[in-house]
Design goal:
The complex is a heterodimer of chains A (437) and B (261). With 437 residues, chain A is an alpha/beta fold. Chain A has a domain of 151 residues: abc- transporter (atp binding component) like domain (Coagulation Factor XIII, Chain A, domain 1, Distorted Sandwich). Helix content of chain A is 24%, strand content 31%. A 6-stranded mixed β-sheet of chain A has the order 5-6-7-3-8-9, with helices on both faces. In chain A, strands 10, 12, 14, 15, 17 and 18 form a 6-stranded mixed β-sheet that branches. Chain B has one domain. The two termini of chain B are 24 Å apart. The chains are: A alpha/beta (437), B mainly alpha (261).
Chain lengths: 437, 261
């Protein structure tokens, strides 16, 4: 049985509403669609969402996405057609919709819990989990009007996912919060989908949608253009968006000609220590050899957290041996906004042998990475390991690992043609031949 | 209608939470806190006492010292007038909630009515203290006061259901209703005794619900009398009869709130 079913649904908004006389307005209350100035937000939309499905809704602004969500959530009624919804809904049409600015985070958790239909007792049991997830213990007794928009959104998301809904609706919300929280949200949403909750996701973030949803609905001007595999919905969506001609001609792409290896070697341990970005917050390992400092620099040798796509970043780490280390290996991991490992490699993968280290010795290792990855925020981790005798070659003994560093942002210039689409650029060659007739 | 009432009952916890929110947020971060809910009746009492006792030399009204007479009336009146207006504006004030979350919409005006009750209680306690000062002490008939209050609440509910919907459609209704409220205050009347009204208007006094309510309260509170039951019962029957179409009207209009707000 479908958990949400739309059959030939129309939604018409009366643009005159609020402008006519009191009598006319009352007439439109009792008999809608009597006036002439109408806007068809949805026309003849039919689809069904099955129980446990992760379903995306995609479309340009004004295509009718929010209207569909509001109808599913029961906030507004369709003008024509039938809608059936079987299940308790938690909707994030807007994060923290029920929050009151003067109340504290704690009071608002109970507040919005009961708006979402949860008894006080239930929220009491979930309270710790909610605050843990939102990472707001320090601010829980502060009025939420003092919160940053990120904190506000964290609390809102945390409450909405904790009420164990049968249908979870999420509307364009992950643009808020930093990349660490976004990764956490994606993990949480995957977990919720895994538990069999029906999940409805509305966003312009097509990458996130493809990552989470099996099927998607493409809306265009209130009509259902396509219902089916998310990948296809997304590519049809881009086909629509892409109909606009590019107004600005492509400029010559800047090419970095500087080779950075010599300069990196010239970097002193003190340089690295002074500019170190290590937080020490998410760290584990045996500490036989430690990463005591690390730096990220751009092609010009400056500290950088942001880099244009296709340009290099240099990750420089300073190792300090606490014991004698034989054949240490060192490398990095790069994670995207959704927590997906995009790329990981190090000395072992590149067959680069580092010198053995004596106790007390320090070693600088620099990784030049060309950021051929899609635009967005990335976190990274840095690690140093030692191979273990008799173990398969892809296993190592972790001496020190710093997780969740960054973020670094890869940027694109929207006035230029993008060099590629997708997660990463693969080596590709194009040839052609004109056949004259 | 039975189904709507049942659904409302299922959402009672939300009603109480929203009421709590309303009360807490009203008094949080204001310097006088609770004092504000007393400000209006106290100031009005002072003004009317000066006007009537000192300027017009009215020593008492219906045998009750003037300040306590007017404060008692104002306690009931302020709850009625202030709550009706705030319930009327409540749907607009909570449009963020209405356009984002689904729940029975009558909870919003009901929240105004319940949180107004908090101000009423505060004002009532002050009235008790003031009355004791003038030598009036609680008597067994005070047990009727909740019943009288329920009639008043029913009246506010009827008005709130209709006015809040109309106010969604037409915002300028607030001004009209504020004006009518002042007029109604003179007709009830609140700050002078019924005897001061023209004879013709006096006949309407006991079928006017607020008149019946204030009269019943006065009888119980100051004279240890039974309330005038017939006028109270007529008011109740009329208000219940008005409630049914008002509630139906509200539930019918409710579907459009999210689109219009």
């Amino acid at each position: 049985m479908s958990i949400v079913r739309f059959e030939h649904v129309d939604k018409v908004y009366d643009l005159q509403a609020g402008r006519q006389t009191l009598f006319g307005a009352l007439k439109s209350v009792t008999n809608p669609s009597s006036s002439g100035d109408l806007f068809h937000a949805l026309s003849d939309v039919s689809f069904a969402i099955e129980k446990g499905e992760a379903f995306g809704i995609i479309g340009r602004n004004g295509a009718g996405k929010s209207t569909i969500l509001k109808i599913i959530a029961g906030i507004t009624k369709p003008t024509a057609g039938t809608v059936t919804v079987n299940g308790r809904i938690s909707s994030l049409i807007e994060l923290g919709a029920g929050f009151h600015p003067d109340l504290t985070g704690r009071e608002n958790i109970f507040m919005s819990g009961s708006i979402l239909g949860m008894p006080r007792k239930f929220i009491e049991n979930k309270f710790k989990e909610i605050v843990d997830f939102a990472e707001l213990w320090d601010f829980i007794d502060v009025p939420v009007k003092k919160y940053s928009s990120g904190m506000y959104a964290r609390l809102g998301f945390s409450v909405a996912v904790s009420v164990e809904p049968e249908i979870l609706i999420i509307d364009e919300i992950l643009s808020v919060g930093d990349v660490f929280f976004q990764q956490k949200c994606f993990t949480k949403m995957r977990e919720i989908i895994g538990q069999g909750t029906t999940f409805i996701y509305v966003t312009h973030d097509t990458a996130g949608m493809q990552n989470l949803c099996d099927r998607a609905l493409l809306l265009d001007a209130g009509k259902a253009e396509f219902i089916g595999a998310t990948t296809e919905a997304v590519s049809r969506y881009y086909a629509k968006v892409g109909q606009k001609p590019a107004a600005v001609p492509a400029k010559e792409r800047r090419v970095s000609a500087v080779s950075s290896s010599e300069r990196d070697i010239a970097m002193t341990p003190d340089d690295i220590k002074q500019h170190s970005l290590l937080t020490g917050a998410n760290r584990h390992g045996a500490h036989g050899v430690e990463i005591i400092a690390a730096r990220v620099t751009n092609a010009a040798g400056e500290d950088a957290r942001s880099v244009p796509v296709l340009e290099p970043l240099t990750f420089t780490v300073l190792l300090h041996a606490n014991t004698d280390i034989h054949n240490p290996t060192c490398g990095l991991h790069l994670f995207n906004r959704m927590g997906t490992l995009v790329f990981a490699a190090g000395t072992k993968q590149l067959r680069h042998r580092l010198p053995d280290l004596k106790k007390g010795e320090e070693l600088i290792v620099a990784f030049d990475v060309t950021m051929n990855v899609e635009q967005g925020e990335y976190t990274f981790s840095l690690g140093v390991s030692e191979p273990v005798e008799g173990q398969p070659p892809n296993l190592g003994f972790i001496h020190d690992r710093h997780e969740m560093l960054g973020p670094v942002t890869v940027t694109t210039d929207d006035s230029e043609v993008y060099p590629f689409y997708g997660i990463a650029q693969l080596p590709m060659k194009i040839s052609h031949r004109l056949k004259s007739s | 209608m039975g189904r709507d009432l049942r659904n409302l009952y299922l959402h009672r916890e939300l009603l109480f939470t929203l009421t709590r929110r309303e009360i807490i947020s009203r008094y949080k971060q204001t310097f006088f806190g609770l004092g504000w809910s007393l400000m209006q009746p106290i100031l009005q009492t002072v003004v009317y006492t000066i006007a009537f006792s000192f300027v017009l030399k009215t020593p008492s009204a219906e045998g009750i010292p003037y300040p306590i007479f007017v404060f008692a009336n104002l306690t009931l009146w302020t709850y009625f007038a202030a709550t009706t207006i705030s319930a009327m504006n409540s749907l607009r004030a909570n449009s963020a909630l209405i356009t984002k979350v689904a729940f029975p919409r009558e909870i919003i005006p009901l929240t105004s009515i319940l949180s107004g009750l908090f101000d009423f209680v505060v004002s009532f306690v002050v009235l008790l203290v003031l009355a004791a000062f003038y030598g009036f002490f609680p008597n067994i008939k005070f047990l009727y006061i909740p019943a009288i209050l329920i009639v008043e609440i029913l009246f506010i509910v009827d008005l709130a259901l209709i006015l809040s919907v109309l106010n969604v459609v037409r915002r300028d209704l607030t001004y009209v209703v504020s004006f009518l409220m002042t007029l109604y205050m003179f007709l009830t009347p609140v700050f002078f005794s019924i005897g001061a009204l023209p004879k013709k208007l006096q006949e309407f006094y006991f079928i006017n619900p607020m008149g019946a309510i204030i009269d019943a309260f006065k009888n119980v509170f100051f004279y240890d009398y039974e309330p005038r039951w017939y006028s109270l019962i007529i008011a109740t029957v009329v208000l219940v009869l008005i409630f049914i179409p008002s509630y139906k009207f509200f539930k019918r209009a409710e579907k459009l709130f999210a689109d219009v707000l």
